[in-house]
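Posting for a labmate who doesn't have an account.
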Amino acid sequence: MIQRKLCLWLAVGLVICKAQEASKGNEEEPEEPPKVVRVSRIEYKGEKYLLNKEDGIVYANSVEEPEEVGHWNEFDGVTLFSEEEEAKKKAKEHESESGSCGASSEFDFNKKEEESEGGCGCGSLSRGGDGEGTELESKYLGRGGLGADMVLIEGGDFQLGSEEGFFPEDDEGQVRDLQMSSFKIGKYTISNKHFEAFVNATGYVTEAERFNFSYVVEQFVSRDISTGIKTAVAAAPWWIPVNGSDWRHPEGPDTDIYTTRGDRSQHPAVHVSYHDARAFCRWAVEGGRLPTEAEWEYAAHGGLDSNNRFPWGNEFYKDGKKHRMNTWQSTIHDKFLQDKNVFKHSFLPTHDGHAFYSANNSAEDGFETTAPVDSFEPNAFGLYNLVGNVWEWTSDWRIPDRTILSSKNPKSDGYGNMKVKKGGSFMCHEFTCYRYRIAARMAITPDSSAQNIGFRCAASVETDKIDN
């Protein structure tokens, strides 16, 4: 008979571990590895609770008998305790005792790896959660008034995916003939201005704010902040977890969207998780949701050839020199052009990638980080910045075989634990992350956020409605 015990203690994180005791003979079952979860204590209507920052679940403040009482977004007027340092002290004292479950009080972001997973490191920024989150209350739905920024896309046929096979592990090469119903999609990615209106109207708190950290490229973090950070993403060490980074503070707590790097109110809202994006769309647009991957690709092609790499065709530059999207232009680009061991569109080893993204972005396209949502020319459907600038969330779960999905309005509902994001970002470069192509895709957990992840909304217009 195995007896399991739930242990909770408050530190930088809430450590949940299951200690197993075996009574069969003299044999003892090995302990399960502990799970480290970030937590805050909160107060609501005079009562104290524990907030699990991994999934937003709120528990009654009882260490011995934790009881789930709801989700963060169901509580209005919550007060966070500012006792982090005291908690750290208690955690260290607890860890030194023999009764510790053996878990570190440090947040383990990624296991150590010798080589990068490839690209700009954007696929390594998952927080690890796979929950579906909790929506805002129904009273907020359809109140945002962004209908004017939605574009009607007439239904039709197209081919999803690409046979070019740049990244086989992304499964982008499964080309399929699809039939799409008409739908609406955002003309722009959602701007800081619009996201601020949403937060002001609803009091919504993003997952980056609940976790109290998000991922930022180190060179954009101030020295005062970066010197205090002792961890990085192992597979992409140019990405670091920055406490206090969120949509208002894109590069850390000492930055903001109005004065740092100029007025960025019209730049895309970043550090937004899938759950945050979905909540916004449900508030801002009647019947609002996130686009499916098929809808996103169909809209991005703009009615042109489905084999095109980009929304306008296959040429990166216009007239051989004019930039059409916001991507990375490295000041050490020539070094890799002459390196015979590095092939176009290949993965750079981690140490080379670190050097690549530690060098300045020369910003030949006019932008060092994000660009305004109406930058560059729109595609034939009038949609802006579908590639480059920021990754965009879709509603689809990543599955290894998309051929199992319907050929009409496909949607990967209920599969896996990673959501598909599309379009690449300002971090993409042909030597690292050649994913600023329409068919390119990358998967990440729905609670994740970073400096280069944003979104646009969608809505159904026919009987074949899609919910997410």
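Reply:
Got it, the structure tokens are right above this. DSSP finds eight helices and 20 strands in the chain.
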